[in-house]
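Listing S7. Sequence submitted for prediction.
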Amino acid sequence: MHEVFYRLLTRRELRENFQGGKLGAWLSRGATNLAIDHRRHARREELVDHVDEVKIDAAAPERDAAREAHAKGIVERFREEVLPPKLGPLFEVRFIRQLGQYEAAEELGIARSTLVYQEQKIREMLRAFVLDADDDDETKEGGAR
């Protein structure tokens, strides 16, 4: 509030805006406007900072390609080692092609409620598979030390 009061008294253009009335209301309006200006300035700085963070890294496409290849390998391993063949088509339409539940159920020729139940089973298998894979990775890292 002191900063607002100081600005209002030291800046001539702001003092000229006071046209009588309650001094408290005038100060309150000045404080509100100052807070709004401060927030707008902070947002602009956040946007500039964000743009600086997003600058394209020359190695990014190579890393993205490596991550994609790694992810595809994990998916294939899951399909081969864990996923029962009868759930393969559901896995394809819901998790790979990412169709909606109604659309996927129609394409597979099953009831949506059946799709939801089977999808939940796949999610549980995925969760267990990923957690086991994480444990395996930690074991390998721990053994390499």
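Caption to Listing S7: primary sequence and predicted structure tokens for the chain studied. The longest helix spans residues 112-144. DSSP finds seven helices and no strands in the chain.
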